[in-house]
Amino acid sequence: MIATLLQIAAMFAVLSLLAFGGGAAVLPDMQHQAVDVYHWVTAREFLDMFALSRAVPPGSMIVVLVGQKAAGVAGGLVALLAMFGPSSLLAFGVARLWHRAGGAAWRDTLEQALAPVSVGLTIASGIALARSTEHDWAAYAITAAAMLLLVFTRLHPLVVMAAGALLLILAGG
Amino acid sequence: MANRAPVSGTALFLSFLIIGCTSIGGGLTAWIRRELVERRGWIDDQQFLANYGLSQMVPGATNVNLAVLIGAQLRGANGALIALAGLMLVPLAILLALGGFYFAAHGASHATLLNTALAGAGAVAIGFNVATGIRLGLANIRRLGPALIAAAIVVAIGVIRIPLLEVLLVAIPASLALTLLQRSR
Predict the structure, then answer these.
(1) Contact A29/B163, CB-based, under 8 Å?
(2) Can you tell me the distance from the alpha carbon of A160 to that of A147, in angstroms, rounded to the nearest whole number?
C-alpha cells in the first residue's frame, strides 16, 4: 500500500512539471504509465475515467480516479497533491522571480514560443487516447463529429458528451 | 491598488469555494474572473490577465496555476493554499463519489449500459481535446514555422508515441529559437 502510494506520488509529481499548456499534455504519458507500466487500470478504464473527470473542474482531475483505483481514497488524494503540488510551487516561485526581475520583457517571446507547443500537445493527447483504446468506427465517428461541433459551434461540452453517450447506446442497443 | 482593504482568508476561501461549485460543467476561467474581478473587485482586469498569461507559461493546469497566483497576490503563500483548497474541495468530493460508484458498478454484469454510455462520452471527450487544440491554434498560430512545430508534436506524440519529456526537450528550444529568429528580423 505504502509502496503504491509512493509510486503514485513519484509518477504524478514528474508529470506535474511536464504539463506544458495544461493537463492534456501529459495524458498520453500518464496513460502509458498507469496502464502499461504499473497496471493500475486498463486502457478502457483510463478512457472512462477521462470522461468522468471532465464533469468537474479543473483540468487534470483524472489523476484522482487513477489514484483511487490504484490505492483507494488515499491514493486519490496523494495523486491530487502530487499532480498539483509541484506545478503550483513552480508557479508561485516563478511569479515572485518574474515580478522582481522584470520578466515582462520576456513575456511576449515566451508566450509566442509556448503557443505552438501547447497546441501540438493538446491535439496529440486526443489522437494518442483514441489510438490506444479499442476505438471502433462508431467511436471515431462520434469523436470526429464532436470535434467539428466543438470547433465550429458554441455548444456546451457536457451537452455534447451526453449526446455522445446516448448515441452509442442507441447504436449498440 | 495599495489602498484596497486586505482580503480575509475566510472571504478568499469562500470565493474559491463558490468558483469550484459554479464552474462544474466548464468555464472555470470565466467564473474566476467574474467572482474576483467583477463581484469582489479584489483585482482588476489587467492584473487578472497578467496572472493568466503567467499561469499558461508554467506547467500544470492553467486554472489551478491561476488560483495559486491570485491567492498569492492577495494573501501570500497562505493565500495560494487557501485558494487551492477552496477551489478543489467540492469537485474532489464529487469525483471521489463518482469514482466509488464507477468502481462498484464497473465489471458487474448489468453494467453494459454504463460502459456503453461512458464509451460514448469518452469518444466525445477525445474530440473535445482535439477541438480545444484546434481552437488554440486558430487563435494563436499565424505563421508557417509555429504551425510546423505544432504538427511535428502531434505526429511525434499522437502517432509515433515518443515520450513527452524527449519531445519537450526538442520542441521548446526549437520554438524559442524560431521565435527569437523571427523577432530579430
Answers:
(1) yes
(2) 10
Any idea where the domains of chain A sit in the sequence?
A: 2-135
d(CA A113, CA A116): 7
Alpha-helical segments (H) within A19-58: 27-31, 43-53
Q: Burial letters for A126-136: b for 16+ Cβ neighbours within 10 Å, e otherwise?
A: bbbbbebbebe
Which amino acid belongs to residue B78?
N
Q: Is the pLDDT of residue A142 over 70?
A: yes
Interchain CB distance below 8 Å, A51 and B163: no
| Arithmetic mean of pLDDT, A131-135 | 84
Cβ-based burial of B104 (10 A; exposed 0-12, middle 13-18, buried ≥19): exposed
Query: Mutating which of A48, A68, A119 best tests the B interface, going by the most B Cβ atoms within 10 A?
Result: A119
Q: Hey, are the CB atoms on B178 and A146 less than 8 Å from each other?
A: no
Q: What is the DSSP letter of B35?
A: I
Q: Which residue has the cell 473542474?
A: A57
pTM (2 decimals)?
0.91
